[in-house]
Amino acid sequence: MSYSTRVKLMISRRHLIATAAVLAFVASSPAFAAETKKFTAAEFEAAQKAGKSILVEVHASWCPTCKAQAPILSELMKDAKFNNLVVFMIDFDSQKDAVQKVGARIQSTLVAYKGTKETARSAGDTRRDSIAALVNSAI
Q: Which domain covers residue 13, as residue numbers?
């Protein structure tokens, strides 16, 4: 076998191994089941009218409670049962009209809906079990 053929074969093997490694990583990485979007009144109302399961997060980047909720919510959203859950994020500081629309008084407020019906609400909660119960109430 010539030198150039061996080099091409080595490159092909490396490419194959690298591709296999990437595919294995992607396959083993959990995908987020829930769809997260910035809150807009029009999209929120459309999701409600469509009877969707909805979670509204009233969040502030400076809020330590919001930061404590984030990994809990992130872990919960990986569950396939939340495939159809729509998560709307409201920025507490810049979206005051949206904060008012959902009746939140403080950041770190979570509100679950099934269509137009509010199913659960919490503010300042960082306990995994009660946050999971709140999210589950929407499905």
A: 1-30
